[in-house]
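note to self — DONT lose this again. spent like an hour looking for the file last time. sequence + predicted structure for the chain T wanted, 238 res
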Amino acid sequence: MESRTVLITGAAKRIGNELALHLAKQNWNLAIHYNSSKAEAMALRDYLKAIYPKQVFKVFCCDLSDKPESLISEVQKEFGQIDLLINNASVYNPGSIKETPIELLDEQMSVNFKAPFILMRDYANLCKKGGIINFLDTRVTKFASNYAAYSLSKVALSHLTQMGALEFGPNIRVNGIAPGSTIAPLGVDSDYLESRASRTPMKEPGGIQPILKTVDYILDNTYLTGQILYCDGGEQLT
C-alpha cells in the first residue's frame, strides 16, 4: 500500500487524536501538530511508532494564534510531499456578542479561521497537489449567539473551504466536515451530549465513528470538492 503523509493540527487530543489513530491504521505517515499538549503528542507518536514501525511519525509544536506561517514548510522539509492537510485544531469558548471582549474575538478568529487560511495558502503554494479537510461545526447554519465569536470563525472557515476548492482545483480538493454532538466540551458532563442530541432527528449522539467514516468518504471520492458534510444527526435542520 502506498505510504502517504497527513498533517493534522491539534492531533494530540480528542477528535485530532482519533483522526491520527485512524489514518495511521491506513498506512499514513503523520505530522502530529500540538501547541500546549506536548506530553500527549509525544505519547501518541511513541505509541504509533511501536505499532507501525515502517511508518513515519513526527511531532511539530506551533502556536496557531501567533505564527503559523512556518508550519507547512517545516513539515514539508521533514516529509517531502504533504498529501493531506486536516485543519482540526480549534478553540471553543462561550460568549454572546455583548459579552465578547476583543481578546476572545481575536483568539477565536486567529486559531479557528486565520491559521487555517494561512495553512491552506502555504499548502497550495508549496505542496501544489493533495487534499484539505477543514473541521467546521453544525453551528455554521444557526444564528444563536451563545458562542458568537466561535460560530462566526467557523462560518468564515466554511466560506474559505468553498473558496479554496474553487481556486485550488483541480490539483487540490478542499472539503469540510461539520460535526454535531460528538465529544462533550471539557468540563461538561456527558449528559450534555444526550440533551443536545435529543433535539435532533437521530435522537442520540453520533460519537467519533461517523466522523471517521466521513473522512474516509472524502478521501475515497476523488470527484468531491467544495462540500460541507454535516455529520450531526440532522442537527443543522433544527
